[in-house]
Design goal:
The chain has 320 residues and is mostly helical.
């Protein structure tokens, strides 16, 4: 686009959409490993590569707190795992069901579409204030003022590169650039959301409440991860390459410090061990199957049928 080789409006928009897939690929296959310390054996290399998250409009330290500290430690535990949403989307039976949740099967995809745009505009600022109150910034050896300055500066630079520069260079109305920018984030946000949610918020995984068991984890850590995490699409190597091996989410949650290129090799061992001890190992054959399960779960959580199903299964278990 910047070289002027393509100037057609639809061609420009197609390239913005392609950048959206590129953003999601970078986030899934490069940034994710680096911020887990798994991209390289060298700590400094991981730190620098992890900063590529700035190109997706996010702040690496916030991501590490939400993902590494909260999500990986408290997977599918309401009140701790921020990946379960903020209340507008009901992603766990332990979250209060509101009247509008019965429509979430309709509006959730639209929220997924704006996920990274919200991340760029507002989420990082909200998180940094929240993490300050929870005293979580110390997990990243950061102060609040330093973090706030880095976030603000990174947002300004991001806007200059991805909005101001194309408007200044491209021989097109500024509105085309803005539509392209929104399209890029729509593609990226939807891609990231579906990959991650299909690994945890599906009909076959288990959910937990922070208030149960005195706020402690019910199971051994490894058992908890197996019960709250699922795999999908093991048969597609190209798909696995593009999403950074995150179709092997079980292996990733058990061994987050191992680079994703090894997940395929260790998955057989994990599955055999789980079956040996009678622990669930959930794996959908295809990504489409995982998507059906995810949206089926959202639908049942929204209309209350999930609870009725669980009550029925509990009565049958007691009767037997």
């Amino acid at each position: 686009m910047l070289t002027g080789y393509i100037t057609n409006v639809w061609g420009i928009l197609a390239l913005w959409g392609l950048m959206g897939f590129g953003m999601s690929g970078v986030g899934l296959a490069v940034m994710h490993d680096a911020n887990h310390g798994a991209y390289s054996k060298n700590k400094k290399t991981n730190e620098w590569v992890g900063r590529i998250l700035y190109l997706v409009g996010g702040y690496p330290a916030n991501w590490r707190i939400q993902h590494n500290v909260l999500h990986h430690t408290y997977t599918n535990i309401s009140g701790h795992d921020e990946d379960l949403g903020n209340g507008f989307i009901r992603m766990s039976p332990n979250q209060k069901r509101m009247g509008f949740h019965k429509f979430q099967i309709i509006y959730v995809p639209m929220l997924y579409v704006i996920m990274t745009l919200y991340w760029f505009v507002s989420k990082d600022f909200q998180q940094i204030f929240r993490y300050k109150k929870k005293n979580l910034l110390k997990t990243q050896q950061l102060t609040f003022s330093t973090s706030l300055i880095k976030i603000a500066l990174s947002k300004v630079i991001y806007a200059l590169v991805f909005i101001v520069l194309p408007i200044a260079v491209l021989p097109l109305p500024w509105s085309v650039t803005m539509w392209g920018f929104l399209l890029m984030h729509a593609v990226c946000g939807l891609s990231l959301a579906l990959i991650f949610q299909c690994a945890h918020v599906i009909e076959e995984t288990s959910f937990f409440d922070a208030e149960e068991n005195g706020g402690s984890m019910e199971n051994n850590f490894a058992i908890h991860q197996l019960k709250s995490t699922a795999n999908f699409a093991h048969g597609s190597r190209a798909f696995s390459w593009f999403i950074g091996g995150l179709n092997y989410q079980i292996e990733h949650h058990l061994f987050p410090n191992i680079c994703h290129v090894h997940y395929r090799q260790i998955s057989g061992i994990v599955k055999e061990t789980a079956e040996e001890y009678g622990i669930p190992y959930v794996a959908h054959k295809t990504f489409a199957g995982a998507l059906r399960s995810h949206f089926g779960m959202l639908y049942s959580l929204g209309n209350g049928s999930y609870e009725k199903k669980m009550e029925k299964e509990q009565r049958q278990l007691v009767a037997s």
